Amino acid sequence: MTRIAIIGAGLSGLITAKMLGDHASVTVFEKARGVGGRMSTRYTDKHVFDHGAQYFTLKQAASKTLLFQEMQDGTIDRWNAAQAVLKGTEEQSLSLWQDGSPRYVAAPNMNSLAKSLARDTDVRLNTKITRIEGEAGKWLLLGEKEADLGTFDWVIISAPAPQTAQLMPACFAMHDAIASAEMKGCYTLMVGLQHNPDIPWQTARISESPLAWIAINNSKPGRMDVGTLVLQASNDWSQALLDTDQNWVREELLREGSQIIGTDLTSAPFIQMHRWRYANVVQPASRSLLLDHTNQLAACGDWCIEGRVEGAVESAIMLAENMRALM
Asked: How many CA atoms lie within 13 A of 30 on its CB side?
């Protein structure tokens, strides 16, 4: 049976593994301690934060079909939030998502979808791939301290574009397509409160501010009813300050968030910040998927199509369908 290694246990990697599992022996390698990638969840004793992707849409038939079971069993649920549009601290408009196109979240936490997709898949967590050596049909994966992680017929990388470019062997025929993708970072501030804030909305899109998004995370279906705020800085602001003193960045976001919410967030019982170096796709790659049949190497991800969850799903579906036709 064909042996396939997939590097990255985000949605793209897990969906590719799910679709190829009946056609090949698939192993997924993930450097983090859990699956999900940017659909991640942070836990504390009293608060739970979806500190990566906030929600997603399912507009394409292929995405809906693939995720039908997760929608049926409640792993995917609709989030009917009230969304404000703010210019700085001034509210410009307020709309109800229940009146428009559905926005979905995974439940009870955003990483629940990845956990569902990872069932019955060989996923090796806490395993960082540092180098790929060999040739088509004989790709050797090396980990930290030169650990031999096995030899595979095919290697698929579903990591963000800069990490994919760094790890992909030089013979890969589509390095130019990887290089054409541009991604930017994002700071996420997680604030745990004792009570829900007294505001008329659950999400806000913000302009003319370092912050671009605020969500009352516990307003999502299946969450605990305790004040849990997720504040995300704009990609441009974050990118310009990725290597700036992290304490300064944290204080700036707390100050800005306090003004918008109308509550002093600096005294909150829990405050933590996360820096995403590759959070959003500014310029997608020139191809929806990258498949080098000759060298038996491939790549997929949201950065191939658009910086959205459904982009990651669609790229994985297209890659898996193309690979199944080769097997």
From this structure: 23
C-alpha 2/C-alpha 152 separation (Å) is 8
Helix axes 309-326, 11-20, angle to 10 degrees: 30
Give the rounded percent of residues in the chain with a pLDDT score beyond 90.
Answer: 96
108 prior amide bond cis, ω within 30: yes
45-65 average pLDDT score: 95
Residue 45 clears pLDDT 90, i.e. is over it: no
Which CATH number is 3-326 given? 3.50.50.60
Query: Which residues partner with 206 through β-bridges?
Result: 86
The tens digit of pLDDT for each residue in 150-188 reads: 999 999 999 999 999 999 999 999 999 999 999 999 999
Look over the chain and give the mean of its residue pLDDT values, rounded to a whole number. Answer: 96
Give all strands of the β-sheet with 148-152 in edge-to-edge order: 129-135, 138-143, 148-152
What does the block give as tokens for 321? 């369908």
Residues in Cβ contact with 85 at an 8 Å cutoff, skipping those fewer than 6 apart: 91, 92, 93, 94, 95, 204, 205
User: In this structure, what DSSP letter does residue 145 have?
Assistant: G
* pLDDT, position 306: 86
Q: 310, 63 in Cβ contact below 8 A?
A: yes
* Element of type H or E holding 4: strand 3-7
HSE at residue 50, side-chain half, CA atoms within 13 A, is 28
Helix (H) or strand (E) holding 138: strand 138-143
One-letter amino acid at 160 equals: P
Residue 24 reports pLDDT greater than 90: yes
